[in-house]
Amino acid sequence: MSNPATQRILMMRNSCYELRRDAISRLSLTFLDLKLRLGFKSLVYHGEVCLGELDVIPVTEHNFQFPNNEIRIQRISQQSERCPTLSILQTISPFSVRCKLESSSRTEQTHLINLHASCFHEVKTAVVLIGDEEIHLVAMPSKQKKFPCFWCFAVPVGLYDSCLRMLNMRCLSIVFDLDETLIVANTMKSFEDRIEALRVWIAREMDPMRVSGMSAEMKRYIDDRLLLKQYIESDVVMDNGKTYKVQLEEVLQLSDGHERVVRPVIRLPEKNIVLTRINPEIRDTSVLVRLRPAWEDLRSYLTAKGRKRFEVYVCTMAERDYALEMWRLLDPEAHLIASKQLSDRVVCVKSGK
After folding, report:
1. Which of 64, 181, 236, 311 could pair with 99 in a Cys bridge, judged by C-beta atoms 3.0 to 4.6 Å apart?
2. Which residues are 125's β-sheet partners?
3. 75: which strand partners?
4. One Pfam family name from the record (predicted)?
5. CB atoms < 10 A from the CB of 303, how many?
6. CB-based contacts of 64: which residues, under 8 Å, 6+ apart?
7. pLDDT score, position 222
8. Of 113, 167, 104, 159, which is closest to residue 135 (Cα–Cα)?
9. CA 278 from centroid of its chain's CA atoms
10. Which residues pair with residue 91 across a beta bridge?
C-alpha cells in the first residue's frame, strides 16, 4: 500500500491532467466558434467566370455550406417591380436565412462589388441551383461596410419566379380542378355503374324524401345514357323533338409536331351538355359531359376586357388526352389558356401526389 504522501501526489497529478484536458477542450471550442463566426471561404462563379471569394457565415446551428465550397451563380433573377426581394423571400422561403456572405479580402473585388451593386439597385437576386432548390443571394446593406454582403434564402425551383410574376403583373394565379368541379363526365360504363348503385340504395332507403331525390337523379342518368347511346351509334341525338348532328371541331395543336385531331362534337347549350369522343376513331371513348352551371358567367368575368385579373391553370388526376379535351370544351376559343401554354398549364398528377 502507498503511504498518504504518495496518494496526495497521485491525486494532484490527476487533477492537473483534468485541468489541462478542460483547457484544451475550451480552447478547441473557442477556435471552432471563431472559425464559424469567420465563415468558410468559397469561390464565387457566374457561369465559368470566377468573380472572387466570399466568407460563408452560418446563422443557425445547422451550418449551411455550398457544394465543394463553390458558389456557382446560374442566372440573375428578373427585376422585382413592386416589392423588395428580401420581403418576397422572407414570405415564401420555408427557412430563415440559410447563411450570410461577406468579404474579408484586403483587396477590392471589383466583380463581386459590381454584382452586389447591380442586384441591390435593380432589385434582383443572384440564383444558385442546388438539387431541387434555388439559393437566392439577396444584396444587403452592411453596417460594418463589409461590401459585398448577401443573405441567402432557399426556395423550391420556380417558386420565386412564379411569385414575382404575379406581383409584377398584379395578377393572381387560379387553379381549377375538372371532374366533379367544373364538369361531370360519364361513359356508358360509368352511367351503368351509377344507375345500378342508385337502384340498390333506393331499395334499402326508408325515407320517402330521400327515395324521391335518388329516383330523380337516376332518371337523369337514364336520360343522359340514352343521349350518349344515340351519339355512339349514329352521331345524332334526339332531344325534346329536336335533332342534333355532330359538328367536326378541330383541336388546336400544342406544337408543330402534333398530329391534326378533329373530334365529332354535339353541343346542347340549353342543358349545358356536350358529347365528345376522346379518340375520334374509337366510339367506346365517347363521353357525355355536363358543364358546371354558370360556368359561362365565370369565364366571361375571367376574360373581361381591361387588366387581366388571373393566370389560369388546371390540375387534375385525369389522363392527359381526356383532361385537354375537357378543358377545350370549357374554353373553346382558348381565351383563358393560350394553346401554346396548354402543355405547361394543364397538369395531370397521379393519385396521392
Report:
1. 64
2. 138
3. 127
4. NIF
5. 15
6. 56, 58, 98, 99, 152
7. 97
8. 159
9. 28
10. none
User: Cell 497521485 sits at which residue?
Assistant: 10
Distance (Å, rounded) from C-alpha 154 to C-alpha 95? 7
Number of CB atoms found within 10 A of residue 133's CB: 17
Q: What is the pTM for the complete model shown? A: 0.67
How far apart are the C-alpha atoms of 60 and 175, rounded to whole Å? Answer: 36
- What is the C-alpha separation between 139 and 147, in angstroms, rounded? 9
Contact status, residue 180 vs residue 146, Cβ threshold 8 Å: no
141: cell is 446593406
Residue 59: what pLDDT?
Answer: 84
Cα Rg, the chain, nearest whole Å: 33
Exposure string over 39-71, b if 16+ CB within 10 A, otherwise e? bbebebbbeeeebbbbbbbbeeeeebebeeeeb
Closest C-alpha among 302, 306, 307 to residue 331: 302
CA distance 135 to 160: 10
Confidence label for 10 from pLDDT (cuts 50, 70 and 90): low
Burial (CB count <10 Å: 0-12, 13-18, 19+), residue 279:
middle
C-alpha triplet 143, 146, 150: angle, nearest 5°: 90
pLDDT for 30 equals: 45
* Domains by residue range for the chain, with CATH: 38-167 (2.40.290), 175-348 (no CATH)
The cell for 58 is 452560418
DSSP letter, residue 279: S
DSSP state letters, 15-51 = HHHHHHHHHHHHHHHHHHHHHHHH-EEEEEEETTEEE
Stretch among 166-175, 213-222, 279-288 having the lowest mean pLDDT? 166-175
Residue with the three cell numbers 434582383: 124
Are residues 233 and 222 in contact, defined by beta-carbon separation less than 8 angstroms? no
Q: What pLDDT sits at residue 28?
A: 47
Q: Tell me the pLDDT tens digit for each residue of 216-261.
A: 999 999 999 999 999 999 999 999 899 999 999 998 777 666 678 9
Closest CA to 51 of 117, 98, 100: 117
> Can you tell me the distance from the alpha carbon of 93 to that of 90, in angstroms, rounded to the nearest whole number?
6
Angle 317-315-292 (CA atoms, 0-180°, nearest 5)? 90
